[in-house]
Amino acid sequence: MVVPVISRKRGVYLNLTEPTMAAMSVNTKMLNVLQKLNLQQAFPNFEREKITPDIVCRLSTHEMEILGVSSGIDGFSRLITFLKCTGNNTSRTVLDCFFSGVAKYGIPNKVRSDKGLEYVSVANYILIQKGPNTMVTGKSTHNQRIERLWRDVYEGVLSYFYNLFYFKENEGYLDPLKLTNLAALHFVFMDEINRKLQFWAEAWAGHRLRTVNSSPLSLWTSGQLQNARQELSEGKGKQYGAGL
């Protein structure tokens, strides 16, 4: 998703002589979203989509120094279930982000992601909880819901920090090869990024989706009620108990 300033394989610093062109290339890729597909899900929580691109990041020779963003979105309502900036993208960190969404919205029936190793713990968890065929993996470009979300998140929040970090690096204020610089970057900016991400996610939940003329939060709420009515009509009401 971004042009790294460090090569992971060789650990060589890339001298970007034309940073503006590099930024334009990134923006072009971010805006190059596939055409919308007709992939309406049956109910909320039917399929949770997630992926973790390192949009706001500076790669170093140490994997732990990545500043990345993790997100989950409900496939039916487009409600964001979690959106968080973290200091790394290890499997455990992604699982913790996933659990924050589970705590608020429950365990999804299915999860979709790409084939990155950072999703191994999430895959193990969902397969244990929901059984086989509940973890769908594939190319991130085929995950249309999350691709569209990341375009909007980048434009609404992350592009500011991305351009700011590039500016600081080009002016010599930030050296991505120095661990002290990266630690300071995390300390100063991570909370602010998360604050803006949370504010943006709350606004997203209440904004009207043009195709359905309703907000993600409204779709989620009505879908949960519809799920409950269907389960009761199918004779599954015993698990809810009886109120007299």
Whole-number total of structural domains: 1
- The residue fraction in helices comes out at 40-55%
The largest β sheet comes out as: 5 strands, mixed
Q: What integer is the average pLDDT?
A: 73
Strand content: 5-15%
CATH domain class name: Alpha Beta
Low-confidence stretches: 1-43, 51-65, 237-244
What is the second-level CATH architecture? 2-Layer Sandwich
Cα-to-Cα separation, first versus last residue: 56 Å
- CA-based shape: globular
- Placed side by side, the strands forming the largest sheet appear as 3-2-1-4-5
Order of helices and strands: HEEEHEHEHHH
Continuous helix count: 6
| Record field, number of beta strands | 5
Structural class: alpha/beta
The CATH homologous superfamily: Ribonuclease H-like superfamily/Ribonuclease H
What fold name stands as the CATH topology? Nucleotidyltransferase, domain 5
Query: Using only CA atoms, what is the Rg?
Result: 20 Å
